[in-house]
Inverse folding.
């Protein structure tokens, strides 16, 4: 396995675009700290986000995981480009000629995907700890390390999303078209949700229960938006007579759905490559 991973790292080593996009992703994660300086003026109400508890433990695990997950497209471009370059540079065919099996080729790509997810999660852990220890009002050990399931959900979400991108890279071959297909798939899921929610099953949870099995929706459900959890949002909602009863938890069945999709994308990548005449 280390040999397969070494092959992928060697290819990425000479990809300037991969280096730039990966570095940009990690830099943007560190810029989460800039949110602390954002101030809002709503009439006579003035407040700074950092003063609203967004960097308090354990909420910061949820908040940072959600923000970092929204930036995953940068690494998705790297994954898709990594696949398309195999076709444009003919390295895929050369690897197979050199004795690498198609199964090993797909496994090498997935190991690279897994490495990206692991490094991203570790980096987010470090950034979150630094921000939390710097700004949080609660520094008890039991509080610091609670709600860390959001970090695990972030890891599973990245792994599933990158596996999807890997499959699209093999399916479409060209990075621009693969990213376009990803965008179209997101639109199709959004349309499907709209039809289910507003046409077929109005005022029920049936649409949400169905959509949780779709790939992008299942990944999105792992780390839902955290802003409405903040006290001042909850207070404002109560004052206008609206109750926010959203489920913010990370559930085992949601993780399982994404893991099933991840496995399926890996299998489909191998099946497609095995069937295709290179």
């Amino acid at each position: 396995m280390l040999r397969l991973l070494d092959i992928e790292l060697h290819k990425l080593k000479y990809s300037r675009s991969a280096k730039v996009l990966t570095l940009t992703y990690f830099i943007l994660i560190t810029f989460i700290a800039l949110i602390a300086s954002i101030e809002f003026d709503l009439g006579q109400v003035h407040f700074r986000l950092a003063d609203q508890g967004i960097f308090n433990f354990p909420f910061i695990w949820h908040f940072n995981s959600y923000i970092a997950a929204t930036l995953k497209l940068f690494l998705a471009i790297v994954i898709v480009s990594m696949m398309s370059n195999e076709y444009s540079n003919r390295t895929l065919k050369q690897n197979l000629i050199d004795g690498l099996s198609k199964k090993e080729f797909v496994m090498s790509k997935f190991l690279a995907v897994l490495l990206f997810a692991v490094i991203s999660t570790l980096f987010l852990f470090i950034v979150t700890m630094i921000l939390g220890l710097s700004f949080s009002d609660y520094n008890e050990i039991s509080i610091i390390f609670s709600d860390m399931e959001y970090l695990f959900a972030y890891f599973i979400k990245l792994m599933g999303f990158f596996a999807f991108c890997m499959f699209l890279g093999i399916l479409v071959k060209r990075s621009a078209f693969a990213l376009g297909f990803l965008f179209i798939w997101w639109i199709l899921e959004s349309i499907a949700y709209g039809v289910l929610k507003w046409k077929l099953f109005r005022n029920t949870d049936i649409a949400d229960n169905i959509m949780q099995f779709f790939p992008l929706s299942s990944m999105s459900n792992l780390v839902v938006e955290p802003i409405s959890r903040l006290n001042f949002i909850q207070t404002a909602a109560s004052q206008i007579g609206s109750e926010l009863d959203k489920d913010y938890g990370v559930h085992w069945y949601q993780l399982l759905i994404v893991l099933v999709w991840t496995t399926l994308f890996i299998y489909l990548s191998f099946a497609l490559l095995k069937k295709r005449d290179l």
About this structure: Residues 2-275 form one domain.
